[in-house]
Amino acid sequence: MTREKLRDIRYAEQRKAAKVLGVKHVVFLGYEDGYLYPTLEVRKDVARQVRIHKPDVIIAMDPTVRLSDEYVNHPDHIAAGEVALRTINPDASTRQMFPELWRDEKLEPHKPKALFLETFGDKGTVVDISDTMETKIKALLLHQSQLGPEAEGWVRDWNKRTGKSAGYKYGEAFRIILLERDAAETKPRRRARSAVAVSKDGAAAPRSVRRTTRPRAGGARAAKRSGGRARRSR
């Protein structure tokens, strides 16, 4: 096996998995596995795609997640997550960043409505994937160079534990950053209860109040489009 052969195998696996999910268009940027770093070149390439396709939502891994009890995050995941953040601000959303994109390629800035960062466990917003779990398993198992049949068991267990916290059979958790809100949602309310508490060291921390409402604005609409429901779990 060589790196070149493995690259071509994984390209083919990704296309097959995308087809199962109903994805019609896949773009490979050509960066080498294991060598990804959030350079200006990578950031520009991703910003270009965001300006071309103008997505409502960007889904990426949370670059702040480096470790879990059983897993050391891959550096490519961390780098890709960091690029996603820089895409939101400032790379794809401002004219001053990479001005050649609009000057030479006629690609005007675009800012998505929401950013979904995948988390480990049930922290954040839990999205109900019960109706699409079988499709997820089918797509995942097509990545045969990375996963064997035994992966189905731990994937189901992981999503079952995540979904249980919100009352779902299966769930996935995301940290959702809403980048565009309706005017009614941003209008100050009188006597509104504070959404955060302040810890002893002065840092803001969420109140320990469980919310059962769905995420608003871009987050709720994105969850609806994906065929699932979402619930805030804290």
Work out the number of β strands. 7
How much helical structure, as a percent, in the residues? Answer: 25-40%
H/E element order: HHEHHEEHHEHEEHE
Mean pLDDT: 82
CA-CA gap between termini? 45 Å
Oligomeric status: single chain
Question: Measured on Cα atoms, how large is the radius of gyration?
Answer: 19 Å
Could you describe the 3D structure shown?
This protein is of the alpha+beta class and 234 residues long. Helices cover 38% and strands 14% of the residues. It has helices at 3-21, 40-53, 75-91, 100-103, 133-140, 151-164, 183-186, 217-225, and strands at 57-61, 114-118, 124-128, 171-178, 196-198, 204-206, 230-233. The strands form 2 sheets. A 5-stranded mixed beta sheet has the order 1-2-4-3-7, with helices on both faces. A two-stranded antiparallel ribbon has the order 5-6. A hairpin with a 5-residue loop joins strand 5 and strand 6. It is globular and about 50 Å long. The N and C termini lie far apart (45 Å). 22% of the residues are buried.
Describe the protein's topology:
Layout: H1 3-21, H2 40-53, E1 57-61, H3 75-91, H4 100-103, E2 114-118, E3 124-128, H5 133-140, H6 151-164, E4 171-178, H7 183-186, E5 196-198, E6 204-206, H8 217-225, E7 230-233
Parallel strand pairs: 1-2
Antiparallel strand pairs: 2-4, 3-4, 3-7, 5-6
Helix pairs in contact: 1-5, 2-3
Summarize the structure.
The protein is of the alpha+beta class and 234 residues long. The chain has helices at 3-21, 40-53, 75-91, 100-103, 133-140, 151-164, 183-186, 217-225, and strands spanning 57-61, 114-118, 124-128, 171-178, 196-198, 204-206, 230-233. It contains eight helices and seven strands, in the order ααβααββααβαββαβ.
